[in-house]
Amino acid sequence: MSSTEPTPRPDPFEGMHIADADFLMDVEGRRSCTLCGKSRKFFCYTCYVPVGEIASRVPRITLPVKIDVIKHRNEIDGKSTAVHAAILAPDDVKIYTYPNIPDYREETGVVLIFPTPTALTVASLFSGERYQMKENYGLPKGYHMGTLLRFRLNDIVDAPLQSDGAASTTADKDGEDFPVKRAVFIDSTWSQCRGIYKDERLSSLRTVVIQNRISQFWRHQRNSPRWFLATVEAIHQFVLEVHISAWGLDSRYRGLDHIHLNMEQIPKERIVQPDEASPDQVKPYNGQYDNVLFFFRHMYNLIHKYYDHEKLKAYKRPLY
């Protein structure tokens, strides 16, 4: 009787420009964090620094906007993927534990990534186009706002409205007219998230939603579809959308091919051919921020080294 080899599992990160992390497989034992002295494996999740000899080999990236992550005090530091972003983009990502957070009310250009009836898409921040959401998001009476997270953006948009002219299409991220300077993410369960959102320091902010894509997070989230993203995935999706909206998408980039992103949401005029790019401008998106998933991809590969993908509950969730 002949046995057949299992069908190779597609690499969901194929086409992304993520640095080789094979050297992490060679790390044995734990090292002391140079800041707090605690024993850690790859990085210190309380000081947000890599540890041991790998420190010089871990990539470091610059993001187009500042990112603040508001963490609920009951969230376990070692399990949060937001830590990855703080380590890989230390100049741009800060993590705060609620209620010890900044007061954003006097700061311009701050948006909160959170679903509300008036939330904008990233693209509409730049175009000035607004969207009319269906009444109660198209849901039966009695459903609360949290249910929005179980629906795709396309399913709750009734119709686009005309541009109000409030936003600028400038691509100078240091200019006064760049529509977003800082994005705030809430890293907590949905019930905790709603409580944090009631804080006036956050509820007064303009809200933004990101496009749906399939999560590769290995931890099961009960009653949630596959497009509930881990925090670092959401950060990657947001900065990717900002870059495309401001400077376009390189037509050669293949990192979007395996994440079930609706490519129809990217206008054709934002896709830039190689011969159309100007050497004097910021280059269109071609993986510049993919390394924010450096540790995330490594952990994904490590999990799949020991566990069968098809048996993990996290990947059995419905796509929509």
Automatic annotation (TrEMBL):
Top EC class, one word: transferase
Keyword set, alphabetical order: Nucleus, S-adenosyl-L-methionine, Transferase, tRNA processing
Chemical reaction(s) catalysed: a uridine in tRNA + S-adenosyl-L-methionine = a 3-[(3S)-3-amino-3-carboxypropyl]uridine in tRNA + S-methyl-5'-thioadenosine + H(+)
Gene Ontology BP annotations: tRNA modification
Domain DTW: 40-308
Cell compartments where the protein resides: Nucleus
GO MF annotations in UniProt: tRNA-uridine aminocarboxypropyltransferase activity
UniProt EC number: 2.5.1.25
Keyword Flavoprotein: no
Superkingdom classification of source: Eukaryota
InterPro entries linked to this entry: DTW, tRNA_Mod/Golgi_Maint
CC annotations in GO: nucleus
Function: Catalyzes the formation of 3-(3-amino-3-carboxypropyl)uridine (acp3U) at position 20 in the D-loop of several cytoplasmic tRNAs (acp3U(20)).
Family: Belongs to the TDD superfamily. DTWD1 family.
Protein name as it appears in the record: tRNA-uridine aminocarboxypropyltransferase 1
Biological classification of the source: Eukaryota, Metazoa, Ecdysozoa, Arthropoda, Hexapoda
